Amino acid sequence: MKLKSQINQVIKEAFSKAGIDVDTVMVTDATKAEFGDFQFNGVMPLAKTLRKNPREIATELINHIDLTGVIAKAEVAGPGFINLWLNDAWVASQCEIALNDERLSVEKKENPIKVVVDYSGPNMAKQMHVGHLRSTIIGDTLANLLTFLGDDVIRQNHIGDWGTQFGMLIAHLEEMGSEGSSSLKDLEQFYKDAKKRFDEDEDFANKAREYVVKIQSGDLHCINLWQKFIDISLGHCEDMYDKLCVKLTRDDVKAESFYNEDLPQVIEDLIKQNLLTESDGAQCVFLEGEKIPVIVQKSGGGYLYATTDLAALRYRANVLGAKRISYIVDARQAGHFKQVFKVAKESGFVAEDVTLEHVAFGMMMDKSGRPFKTRDGGTVKLTDLLDEAVVKAKAAIKDKENYSQEEIEDLAQIIGIGAVKYADLSINRESNYIFSWDKMLSFEGNTSLYMQYAYARIQSIFRRFEGEVKGDIIIGDEIEHRLSVMLLRFEDILNQAAVNAASNQITSYLYELATLFMRFYEQNPMLREGVDEETKMSRLALADLTAKTIKQGLDILGIEVVDKL
Fold this sequence. Notes:
Helices cover 52% and strands 10% of the residues. It has 565 residues and is an alpha/beta fold. The protein is globular and about 85 Å long.
């Protein structure tokens, strides 16, 4: 449910009864429990307009607030703030509705739109490395979130499969014959070997250049070799997506080559719009206020990333019908996307009502604050990082309950991969962050393992209960009230995170929810002897709703839960 919308409506009705005309009102979360559940701070801006003391306006307003439904108490605080407490009976009834709804009372959007989320984007000439992690999991989370909220989401994996290096690669693949496929198991080494041949053997280099021309002209033999290389390369990527529980598939791939035939048309249409200027033989778009132009065609006739991005934007807006196009790319590309988006709008390739956004993110750093590398300074392969996460997860759980070897393997996979993803998704995406195994595999703090443990603890309660939860939710004290209100905030958090493309808003909410539940669990026993049946059922219901909310939140993040930990 949209909790804040419910409260805003009550405040708006109070304004109406007080004879004060307002267009919109907006409550905020209370900073501390003693200040209520929510606060309304909108009186202050009205004071000047109405030429009245803000406390007088606030006092008049609370006299018209309905205290028989959503709101139980309203108080004026400070110079004109209004603190609001929700009605326990109303909160309990809404929690019951959420508990019995498979979507936990999270409504789908009334006016869904088509959204393209462009993420991951590996280069087919190299194996996926840690630099691909953030784009892949941030993008997948955003796609999951928007899908859950009702938008029609189209996932797009814009892979680099075109360019001069592919002549070199397929020439090397051809010469290796039957051994080529097995050699491609290590793409990094395959690339190094091909580059070495290219640098040292002039005949091979000429053949590679010839193959580039043949690929571009559609030579069937070269195209088949190129396609074989792409298929094997994509297989490597799909292994990583499976490990990460990422939903990208082969059908989501829209490679650079897909837009190749449209690139001359992009140039022609920009000429028709009088947007191109020749500079040193290159075709450029000079944007107002920008010193550096957008080069869309080199002097030799070749195209650039900007040209392909413009073709992709036009395709996504006009063919796919997207109204929001999100690029999950690191922050260093901010200038590029700012310019390309501006050209796309000025040229009419993308309509004004289409939202174009660069969902920027920072870098993963080591403990010294430097970019994450291997000990010898090389790039860390993503598969090695994820394998190490599973090994370390085994160590983290080895002293827990007795598990079978199969259970340990399954748990380590879920915990290890979840830890890596959650650590990344729980920070402000625009920030660089320090990669720390100790922190991400801790049972304490805002970690995936803490969330999984909270969920598992609730499941252990129900294993001991072995019954059916019946009866109403009855809020009996402050901790139950706070936990219930927090559960009702779930939809507001998801909608806010969707607007901001901010997964850390979801993780912060889940951590606060789990922390509140732990306090509730310690203070309010459920199965202890002496707890009356009505209270027991109410508390079990709150525990059940908490578990379902944690599970749904983690599912959006692409992280699995465990029933026992």
